[in-house]
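Pinned message: reference record for Flagellar motor switch protein FliN/FliY
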Amino acid sequence: MSQIEAVDVEISVVLGRSVLPMAQLLRMGRGAVIPLDASENDEVWILANNHPVARGAIEIREDRIAITVTRPADVYDFMAGAA
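Predicted structure (tokens):
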């Protein structure tokens, strides 16, 4: 196995963000809904090891959700909370 193949990378996709008081978060139970600052047509952030690497679009393919990479990420926009 080559050195590159031995590296693990965790990929995450972020649709939106929300700010909640801790008390409200603690009161939430199963089925609670957390409103996000995004809509279904907004681009998502694609993170590699919690670092923004790309932007993407959500696609529904039969019974699966897929992400299509649309452009590189701007880390400064991500840190500023840009949509």
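Pinned by admin. Summary line: The chain has a mean pLDDT of 89.
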